[in-house]
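Section 4.2 – Deliverable D4.2 (structural model, holo form)

The reporting period included a commitment to supply a predicted holo structure for the target in complex with zinc ion. Inputs used:
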Amino acid sequence: MTINWFDEHFEIPLVLGIISIIIFMLLLVVPASICLSRTIYVCDKCGCRFRLKWYKYLLALHMNDDRYLRCPRCKKKNWCSPSYNQNGNNIDIDK
Ligand SMILES: [Zn+2]
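Output (structure tokens):
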């Protein structure tokens, strides 16, 4: 794998290149998902308001802002939308 840095060329092993790309992605994706996982979602079925663990947020199937999540109260999987009221009381955290 060759890296072009202005007029210089660096020859690095392919594995090292892949590892550095993965590390770079993790450095971007993990803090972003930790930050975004603070969003409160509302269950369509029972109206339960909940927050997700960051890795569940990262892995959840999504379409626009809606995510396919398991509700922590009624345990059913369905499409959940972000709550309009993001600062609220009695929030169930998905454990
Ligand atoms: Zn529910």
